[in-house]
Amino acid sequence: MKRTIAILGGGAAGMMAAVAAAEEGAKSRSAEEENGTDVLLFEKNTYLGAKVLISGGGRCNVTTGIFDVRKLLENYPRGAKFLMSAMFRFPPEKVKEWFESHGVPLKIEEDLRIFPVSNNGKDVVGALENELRRLGVQIFTNANVIELVSMKGDSAGGEQAASAQKFLLKLKDERTFETDAVIITTGGNAYRHTGSTGDGYAFAKYFGHTVTPLSPSLNSFVVSDQWIKSLAGVSFEKTELRLKSFDGEREYKRTGPGVFTHHGVSGPAVFAMSAAASFETYDRNKPMELSVNFFPDENAETLKKRFMDMADKNGKKFLVNFLDMFLPKSLCGVFVEILKADSELSVGKMDREIREKILDLMQNFKLSVVGRGAGDEFVTAGGVLLDEVNTNTMESKICPGLYFAGEILDIDGFTGGFNLQASWATGRLAGENAAKQMNE
Ligand SMILES: Cc1cc2nc3c(=O)[nH]c(=O)nc-3n(C[C@H](O)[C@H](O)[C@H](O)COP(=O)(O)OP(=O)(O)OC[C@H]3O[C@@H](n4cnc5c(N)ncnc54)[C@H](O)[C@@H]3O)c2cc1C
Q: Is 416 in the pocket of ligand 1 (CB under 6 A)?
């Protein structure tokens, strides 16, 4: 008897799930084609992998060079434990091998991010598309799934859906498909114009699944400090950031590169911070305090000594020009503004109070975080509750034959290839297991 697996969403997880399902299905396909498994991939866009194509600024940070799985898992603020099984089966090293053996040479950059040598995400999607076609996956683009129901029971979900083995899905253009297994890979709801509009959450709920609260992650921060515009573009290779929740009850600390923007702060350390604090609420009335240490590798004592030594040698310099020896010029201007110091004050005339204030600004520069950079979050934190999904197979514990993979799950990682890695790994596991189930 012919069996059918439907995969909802042709993003990273969906494409990899379809490849894995078709490979697994092909392994045990009998001589009679009627006994095989058909793999159907539905994508609402007119092309596959919209988000993969724009990821990493178009270069596609496919995965990470952190090959030790336990170290790798430290990069997931949510879902690390759940990911263990999927990551051991399809770790970054194997992801790398997979793409390279499918015609996409990859390179590991200094910060351990892995990109195509071509710096072109199109190659990543192209390799998956070629493989999908070679394996005979039926690709439906322009195919917006608007309804997914259990064939047992009509629309109530919960208990009725619990015994479901067949599914009916309906497209916006009214076409319907009956399938034996479904893998939901519709993604989160960040960058909605790429097609990821959170549709899968409603499907999951229909089958009795819990969707945890959702929140943007990997975003920049908007700050309310007036002088921020004058710092746009100033960047640091290493800063130490501390963020206090509005009520002061929680504090987050991250170290790494950072950059000032026209409206606030961005860069890897800020993204990591935003992931840690993604469920904090804050706005202009409830700002969070962000403090920046521009000299994270020096303690207060050594910085002070260096500062004093330099001050002794440069007594005649104007303060702003002296600070320039430590920090970018535009930041020195902001320091002088904050200190309300005379711009023509010479270093030799700097009193103790000003000196202490400058040293404090150097390692404890405070900003008021009042919002997230509009629409620039990269992933959605929260999703399908992991307790309700089998970590070894990605199958729903509530509804047999239903699988989840990718960002729709309550999993998110930091920047650095971790989110795509989670999508490849969970997608592969879901595809393999759905196909195995069809063969049983
Ligand atoms: C700008 C940007 C840059 C990023 N850069 C990186 C990076 O370099 N490295 C990294 O690891 N991560 C990166 N990420 C995150 C990463 O791209 C995602 O976490 C990952 O693509 C999620 O994969 P997914 O398959 O779960 O979901 P998605 O890639 O979002 O795919 C879901 C697909 O489902 C389709 N879909 C949704 N609903 C329906 C429906 N009802 N019917 C049919 N189809 C539907 C959507 O159109 C979409 O194509 C980036 C994200 C963004 C926004």
A: no
Radius of gyration of the chain from its Cα atoms, rounded to whole angstroms = 26
Distance CA 123, CA 104 (A): 6
Can you tell me the distance from the alpha carbon of 169 to that of 40, in angstroms, rounded to the nearest whole number? 11
**What tokens appear for 337 in the block?**
């503004």
**Assigned CATH for 3-214+377-439:** 3.50.50.60
DSSP track, 26-79 = HHT--SSGGGSEEEEEE-SSSSS-HHHHHGGGGT---EES---HHHHHTT-TBT
Cα 110 from Cα 276, distance rounded (Å): 24
Name the nearest CA neighbour of 110 among 291, 267, 237, 295.
237
What does the block give as tokens for 244?
A: 């206090």
Could you count the other beta carbons within 10 Å of the beta carbon of residue 300? Answer: 14
Distance 51 CA to ligand 1 centre (A): 5
Judged by DSSP in three states, 164 sits in coil
Are 290 and 270 contacting, i.e. CB atoms less than 8 angstroms apart? no
Q: With contact defined as beta carbons under 8 Å apart, do 185 and 405 qualify?
A: yes
Closest CA to 18 of 177, 139, 166: 139
Looking at every residue in the chain, the average pLDDT score rounds to: 93
User: What is the rounded average pLDDT of the residues 81-99?
Assistant: 98
Express each pLDDT in 24-71 by its tens digit. Answer: 987 765 545 566 899 999 999 999 999 999 999 899 999 999 999 999
C-alpha to C-alpha distance for 228 and 29, rounded to whole angstroms? 62
Domain boundaries, the chain: 3-214+377-439, 219-376
CA distance to 171, 235, 236, 291, per residue, from 363 (Å): 56, 15, 13, 8
pLDDT tens digits, one per residue of 343-387: 788 999 999 999 999 999 999 999 999 999 875 668 999 999 999
Instruction: Indicate the top mutation candidate among 186, 379, 394, 408 to test ligand 1's pocket, ranked by most ligand atoms within 8 A of CB.
Output: 186
Check residue 409 and report its DSSP letter.
B
Residue 350: closest CA among 338, 359, 341: 341
Check pocket membership of 115 for ligand 1, CB cut-off 6 A.
no
pTM score of the predicted model:
0.91
Q: Side by side, which strands form the sheet with 63-64?
A: 63-64, 113-116, 106-108
Gap between the Cα atoms of 43 and 63, Å rounded: 23
Q: Is residue 9 a contact partner of residue 186, using CB atoms and an 8 Å limit? A: yes
